[in-house]
Design brief:
Elements lengths: L7 E2 L5 H11 L1 E4 L5 H17 L4 E3 L2 E6 L1 H9 L8 H7 L2 H11 L4 E12 L16 E7 L11 E3 L3 H13 L20 E3 L7 E5 L4 E2 L8 E11 L3 H11 L5 H4 L28
Parallel strand pairs: 1-2
Antiparallel strand pairs: 2-9, 3-4, 4-5, 5-11, 6-9, 6-11, 7-8, 7-10
Helix pairs in contact: 1-5, 2-4
Length: 285
């Protein structure tokens, strides 16, 4: 087990240390990233949006709002700053977020593609299987708005698994599995080597590489969790869109040339591994 002091940091830690942690372990946790009046304002804004948004939907006793791309752009870019989202704008527009994203994506274009706010309540029956997100690499910025432990839904991460998730995706591509959304991405419990419950106090920020293997936490009886998270995503170029089209088309000969006997059958493949009574929904993590 990797000691948590390797990837837990204080709020005044250097950006370079955080970037190194994300490269080495796939994750960095900044304690008290938001505190005091700013934390209270962020919590109030999030609850207000949950209460008033027409986009709010429920899954059991969990309330979720997904802010659309246009809404996110208005918040982050400041083209339509409203009082009810001013703290959200401030938090996700900080230099730390920009600098870590620049380090992660390099010269590749990227943007804050979506923001989720969710209030999990009394979800004793909810769990999420271990998985990696099956799209181009992204960074998730995950803020606990309440003190969060394994008893009230702390996020779970397989420390150091971001390279494995990337390898699994690339191998599936090599074997002719296209496009991204066709890649089997659930991982059996027996293949998760460093499962860790990411417990942290209110205002803590978790940043992780979505190639890393992770899952949502489980709420204990009468427990609640309030979270806001933003997804910094790769912005596809015109060339990317052309390549994606070709991969999906009959012109992709890899789909026909890779002999089935040469394929590696992971235990979690779609043919021989399924999630009982559970559909993956990356809304809940």
């Amino acid at each position: 087990m990797i000691p948590k002091e390797y990837y837990y940091f204080d709020s005044d830690s250097a950006t370079s240390e955080l970037a190194t942690s994300i490269r080495n372990y796939g994750i960095a946790v900044i304690q008290k990233f938001v505190s005091g009046q700013k934390l209270n304002a962020l919590r109030e804004e999030s609850l207000s949006i949950l209460k008033t948004s027409l986009n709010m939907h429920r899954l059991g006793d969990c309330e979720v709002v997904k802010l659309s791309v246009d809404k996110v752009n208005n918040i982050i870019d400041g083209t339509s700053i409203k009082e009810e989202t001013s703290t959200i704008k401030d938090v996700f527009n900080r230099n730390l977020v920009k600098d870590l994203s620049a380090d992660f994506f390099g010269n590749n274009p990227h943007h804050m593609g979506e923001i989720f706010i969710h209030h999990d309540k009394i979800r004793n029956d909810y769990t999420n299987e271990w998985h990696f997100d099956k799209y181009a690499p992204a960074l998730k910025f995950f803020i606990y708005l309440t003190n969060t432990t394994s008893e009230n839904g702390a996020f779970n991460f397989n420390i150091g698994s971001h390279r494995e998730g990337h390898f699994r995706q690339m191998l599936q591509n090599y074997q002719g599995v296209f496009p991204w959304d066709k890649i089997p991405n659930f991982i059996p419990e027996t293949e998760v080597l460093n499962p860790t419950s990411i417990e942290a106090g209110e205002g803590s920020l978790i940043i992780f590489n979505t190639n890393g293997i992770h899952r949502g936490g489980v709420l204990g009886k009468n427990k609640e969790r309030l979270v806001i998270r933003g997804h910094m995503m790769y912005q596809p170029t015109l060339l990317d869109k052309v390549i994606d089209y070709l991969l999906r088309s009959p012109l992709n000969i890899a789909k026909y040339c890779v002999h089935s006997s040469s394929k590696i059958n992971f235990k979690h493949s779609s043919e021989n591994y399924s999630v009982p009574n559970q559909k993956q929904d990356k809304t809940f993590e």
